[in-house]
Each structure stands twice: as C-alpha cells, then as structure tokens.
C-alpha cells in the first residue's frame, strides 16, 4: 500500500503502482513535515525530563529513613502508571479546562483570564510532556531506587569517615553508582524518539493545536482513516517504523558499548 495509490474498492492488486511518490510527498506536505518536527520535540522532551525526574525523586526518596512514608510515596507516585490515557485525559480536560480547578485557582490568586491549556499551541507541548512524566515517572523511580539499594554500604561508610556530607555522598557515591543504569535507560530510550505517544496526544489534542501537537501517528490516522489517503498514510507509518528500527539497533549497540548491557 505504501507504494500504491491505494483504493479500497480496487484492492492491493488493482490499485495503481506509484513507486516512491508517497514517500516524496512526506517532505512536500507542510503538515507532514510539521508532524515529524512536533514528534521529535515532544518525544525528546519526554525522554530528557522523563530521565531527570525519576533520578531526582529516587535520590530524594532514598534519603527518607521513615519506611512508612517511603512506601506511601512509592505507592502514590506509581499508581498513575496503571491508568489508561483515556482516563487521564478525561481528568486533565476537567482540571485544565477553562472552568477547571487550575484556572479557578489562578484566576482567584492572580486575577487573570482563564488559560486554555489544551487549546493554546504554545502550552500544549508543555502540557503533554508534564502529564506524561507525571503518569510514568513512578516506574523509573522504582528502577533507580532498586539501583541505589544495591550500592555497597561500605562506600557510604568510607565517604562518611572521610568527612563527606550527604550532598557529597550523593554526588560522589550515589550518582556514579547509578550511572550504568542511567546510560542503559537513556540509550534504550533513543528507540522511542519517534514515538510521542499516540494514546495521549489523540485523547488531548484538537484542531486548535495541530500546529504544535500533531504528531506522526495522529497525522497518519487522519490521513488514512479520515481523509482516505491510505497509501500515503501507510508510507508515513512505514517511514517512521524504518527510522525507529535503525534507532533501536543503534541504541542497543550504545547500551552494550557503554554499559555492557545486552539481551542476547
């Protein structure tokens, strides 16, 4: 289908063969190139923030000595991981709407006009990234907590004998010990650099934010299923899959090279 001017009533065998024309159109259509740019910006932002936040939270939580508080926090931040994006999107639409709780608080404190977070192109990417990190950072935090728990206590004892403060112990003991896991997660995340999260964006975006919120997956959905450009939509999806495969191979090799991580 990606190499055809596909018509459902003609089928694959009856549709006209057009070679690479569909792939050339990807870079000729402004909407398609903008969707690729939006995907890269949103995905890279999610990867960067999604790595930093779990690391910071894991370090902060590891410093808490009260096990009851620690376990309660772990449970609370991990719960959103089990919610579907349909559920989260419904909550966000209510909370971030013009009559939602956030705007109610902001207007009462600052007296400003309500902000349409999900309808403002300048705010939509920020909203998508923050909501994704809120939903998923609990899982990463637990991974890093397990890494911290596996650090040899004698390292901290030696640092304490040398007069290191807690901040210095974190800097010179905790972070270096976490580095292999950070490298593994960071490099493997490269494979998702063209995956900005269809479920999330599809349930949150609207025509007002297409300029900054339309990603490859949502563009393929509209092009193929809504506009009937099945061949072109398939070509865009195939283009994304090909690039993603290359990135996965590269990220796997980087993880093996720098962290000695391998699956087979």
Residue stretches low in confidence (pLDDT < 50, at least 5 long) are none
Number of helices: 13
CATH superfamily: MetI-like
Name the structural class.
mainly alpha
**Largest beta sheet: what is the strand line-up?**
1-2
Keywords: Cell membrane, Membrane, Transmembrane, Transmembrane helix, Transport
Subcellular location: Cell membrane
Pfam family, one: BPD_transp_1
GO cellular component, one term: plasma membrane
Please give a handful of descriptors for the protein shown:
membrane, mainly alpha, MetI-like fold, two-stranded antiparallel ribbon, 264 residues
What does this 3D model show about the protein?
By secondary structure, the protein is mainly α. The protein has a single domain (18-259), classed as MetI-like fold, CATH 1.10.3720.10. The chain contains 13 helices and two strands. Helix 9 crosses helix 13. The chain is flat.
Helices and strands, with pairings:
Blueprint: E1 4-5, H1 11-14, E2 16-17, H2 21-26, H3 30-62, H4 67-78, H5 85-96, H6 101-110, H7 121-149, H8 153-161, H9 166-189, H10 198-204, H11 210-213, H12 216-226, H13 230-259
Antiparallel strand pairs: 1-2
Helix pairs in contact: 3-7, 3-9, 4-7, 5-10, 8-9, 9-13, 12-13
Subcellular location: Cell membrane
Transmembrane segments: 35-61, 82-106, 126-151, 172-194, 230-255
Keywords: Cell membrane, Membrane, Transmembrane, Transmembrane helix, Transport
């Amino acid at each position: 289908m990606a190499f055809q001017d596909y018509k459902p009533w003609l089928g694959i065998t009856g549709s006209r063969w057009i070679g690479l024309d569909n792939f050339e159109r990807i870079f000729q259509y402004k909407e398609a190139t903008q969707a690729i740019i939006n995907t890269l910006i949103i995905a890279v932002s999610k990867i960067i923030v999604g790595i930093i936040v779990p690391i910071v939270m894991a370090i902060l939580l590891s410093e808490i000595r009260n096990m009851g508080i620690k376990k309660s926090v772990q449970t609370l931040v991990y719960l959103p991981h089990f919610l579907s994006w349909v559920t989260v999107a419904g909550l966000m639409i209510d909370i971030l709407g013009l009559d939602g709780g956030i705007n109610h608080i902001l207007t009462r404190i600052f007296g400003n006009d309500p902000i349409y977070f999900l309808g403002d192109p300048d705010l939509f990417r920020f909203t998508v990234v923050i909501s994704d990190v809120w939903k998923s950072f609990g899982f990463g935090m637990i991974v890093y907590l397990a890494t911290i728990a596996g650090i040899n206590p004698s390292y901290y004892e030696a640092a304490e004998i040398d007069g290191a403060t807690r901040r210095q112990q974190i800097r010179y003991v905790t972070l270096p010990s976490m580095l292999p896991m950070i490298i593994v997660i960071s490099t493997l995340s490269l494979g998702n650099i063209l995956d900005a999260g269809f479920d999330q964006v599809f349930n949150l975006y609207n025509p007002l934010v297409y300029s900054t919120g339309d990603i490859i997956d949502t563009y393929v959905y509209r092009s193929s299923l809504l506009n009937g450009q099945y061949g072109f939509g398939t070509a865009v999806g195939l283009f994304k899959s090909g690039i993603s495969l290359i990135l996965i191979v590269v990220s796997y090799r980087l993880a093996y090279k720098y962290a000695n991580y391998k699956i087979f």
